[in-house]
Amino acid sequence: MNNKVAIQGILGSFHHQVAKEYFGDDVGVDECLSFDALVDSLLSKTSSVGVMAIENSIAGSIIPNYALIDMNGLHIIGEHYINVQHNLLVLKGQSIEDITEVYSHPMALLQCKVFFKQYPHIKLIEDADTAEVARRIHQGQLKGVGAIASKVAANIFDLDILAEGIQTMKNNATRFVIVQTKNSVIPKEAINKASVMFELGTKRGSLATVLNVMSDCKLNLTKIQSLPKIETPWRYSFFVDVTFEQYEDFEKAKALLKIMASHFKVHGEYKNAKK
Amino acid sequence: MNNKVAIQGILGSFHHQVAKEYFGDDVGVDECLSFDALVDSLLSKTSSVGVMAIENSIAGSIIPNYALIDMNGLHIIGEHYINVQHNLLVLKGQSIEDITEVYSHPMALLQCKVFFKQYPHIKLIEDADTAEVARRIHQGQLKGVGAIASKVAANIFDLDILAEGIQTMKNNATRFVIVQTKNSVIPKEAINKASVMFELGTKRGSLATVLNVMSDCKLNLTKIQSLPKIETPWRYSFFVDVTFEQYEDFEKAKALLKIMASHFKVHGEYKNAKK
């Protein structure tokens, strides 16, 4: 049995931080340079479990990751939140005027683009991982190049921090889910959150009817997102997260929703990490 | 009065295509290399109206653009859909083995990443615009570099199309909104769609209650998206699009929602472009 944890990124990345906080400091990780590679690591049994960013306050849900979970039949067995702080890292001795290119993960670039508006001479370039760019600057002793990454990465790769907390939203909570190919064996009394999806047509009030049932079953909605069904005009998929106090309430809602909505699917039942 | 239309991108971009289809072939455009620049063009009155991508089938809502509309008090006065087809464009005579770097808009890169999995020697690099990269390859006669852009761009900039329709979702409908700083003067009888936002606490069933009111007022939901409120745990913003047959029904719903939800705001009332 392989107990490695697949993370998006390398040692020093935010996914690595989450893996350490969730599984313990001595966690063994498989460094994956994309979310697709992370899924491959699980499917090939290189790793037994994975850590995947799923939503943040700026971009909302990372819909492509929902699609990866759905298409590959992964199960969400837990969640974890961290407050992501981005920093501009450069080779020691470099100043902001020296920097002409900054590389990072697309989500990090998006979160910091307001900061870089004041430096129009800097070109922002998408890269696979935040920490990997820091490693590259260190290994190649690259001048003129910046990374957007964590303080941990600055420390590991011996770089200067030119600017701290450069993301627009200072309180930048990012939610990660813990996923695996097999369903979890969490005891029912520990489960108080679930991620589900279902489809509805456009019959007026159909979503309200479903939400009424959830409310009647004492489920609290913590997230909802509609997505038009590809190739099927006027049908929608809904991704919904709910919290509850009694697992029995959720079981009752599941039984009802299977009848009311088509393609009802549970992506995971797990313990709420908030509060 | 300046009648220019602000677009994200340059001539030959998908935003340009939308501007032509919506305003006519001889539309005058202001080429903006980011959505922020597009908003600046409107606020500085360089343009009187703008075209902005707002959601697609793959990534869902482009939440940062909702934030731009909200924070800058823009009004949505219309919408337009096009089926975006991405193509790999290169300098004439180049083959796929010659190409080591492909530049495009982050959304185009995301939509085509599965295609590039079979070519691990190609590095994907984020750029401001799809068509602008095609122009650059043409002007610099750049070898080894590819662009992801439209067939129109291939034609304008005299490039080879190495691969057609390389996005994962072949039916890639993208929704654009038409925005301006002043509210619209659309006659009420032409209005049958609206984009609204509101906030709710986590009182159980509060969203179901709001959706029941919408349903009672004969509004059809075509999109819903929750977003956690920054710095306010357990409060959520909801972005909702509705369609209706009678403007009076929407007026009634507005009056009720202003009382029921906090921070209720109408981002636009316009004509539904579907069907």
UniProtKB/TrEMBL annotation, chains A, B:
Superkingdom, taxonomy of origin: Bacteria
Keyword Transit peptide: no
Assigned EC number: 4.2.1.51
Keywords recorded for this protein, A-Z: Amino-acid biosynthesis, Aromatic amino acid biosynthesis, Lyase, Phenylalanine biosynthesis
Domain called ACT: residue spans: 195-271
Location of the Prephenate dehydratase domain: 4-181
Pathway: Amino-acid biosynthesis; L-phenylalanine biosynthesis; phenylpyruvate from prephenate: step 1/1
CDD domains named in the record: ACT_CM-PDT, PBP2_Ct-PDT_like
Catalytic activity of the protein: prephenate + H(+) = 3-phenylpyruvate + CO2 + H2O
Signal peptide (from-to): none
One Pfam match: PDT
Enzyme class: lyase
Protein name from the UniProt record: prephenate dehydratase
Organism of this sequence: Galbibacter pacificus
